[in-house]
Amino acid sequence: MAVTVPMDGDRKITYLDNLKDYKPCLPNIENNAATFVLDLQDHHKCGVTRVINQITGRRTFYHKIMIELGDGGRETVTVRCMVTGKPHLLARRAVEPFPLDFNEPDVLNITRYEEGRAPEPVLGAVVKQNGKQVSGEISVSPGTPLSMEIFLDNSSAPVYGLLVSYMQVTDTGKQQETIVFNGCSVDPYLFDNFVTTDGDVLAAKFKAFKFPDTTYVQFRGTVTVCLDKCQGVQCSNGAIGYGRKRRSVASSADSNKVYEVSLTTFIKVDWTDPDAARDSEYLSLLKNLKVANQKLGDIDGTPATVAEHTQDNRLVIHSTEQINAANVLTQSCVLLFISLLLAYY
């Protein structure tokens, strides 16, 4: 998708939202015009959001372009590209004949006609520090508390609910690790589960980190959009990875899933307080995350896979099957103990 922005008048610079200084996604400037070329095959590359309608198969791609003006103001332009899905095939259905005494009136008086359509959801993702949004580039020390928020726009928030089913973190190159799997955090110490309080915003706390060879960290998420609400996911450490509201937990995939959204957000992390010990600590945490991802390959498909850190900084992987088996064994031991007591007395 190519987008050309005329740089006339008092327009000074233009860039993609949250990617002001990210060189791989800067526009080409020629003849007083800025041209963005957005790859829709690799839509994560420059943070293009992809929305797939699960019913019609239609795909929508969108991004925001920021334009800074000479007077200090700013324009925001949303660009979209829609790809129509496969047409639905209509099957002929056998219909029972009308009764013999059926009479169709010659004139039908239609007193009212109503038609309504739900809006296509528009999602946003931001990273915050101390409750304030950071615009793509921050300078923090290892372990600085941050939070990520994923939200619906005002028009679609009353209609839909959200569930972050999968998220991956990458250095925008070859290094990549899974941090949310089937709705549950792989390593809650580094990146917590997504939760919600008001139903319109999902939030997860995490600690600032980066890969050794780059300052950019890219988060790639897959978000399920459901009618009204998405059911939470029971994670094996007792936590709930939430969709829209704190309600019942579903045992299977949501039947009211209507959209799947793939979104991306970037942050640039520079260590402002270099400390060899702390750097070593967070390299160790990344190593633990890599180990957890290797474990995922062995238990792929379990809806509740999480990890927890021991006192000696080891990462222990749990799955739902392991927890359930432990619970059954505990219950069996308790029942056996009670039976022995009754037999004794």
TrEMBL record:
Q: This protein is called what?
A: ZP domain-containing protein
- Domain ZP: start-end pairs: 1-242
Its taxonomic placement starts with: Eukaryota, Metazoa, Ecdysozoa, Arthropoda, Hexapoda
Top-level taxon:
Eukaryota
Q: Which organism is it from?
A: Papilio xuthus (Asian swallowtail butterfly)
Q: Which GO terms describe its biological process?
A: anatomical structure morphogenesis
Question: In the record, which residues are listed under signal peptide?
Answer: none
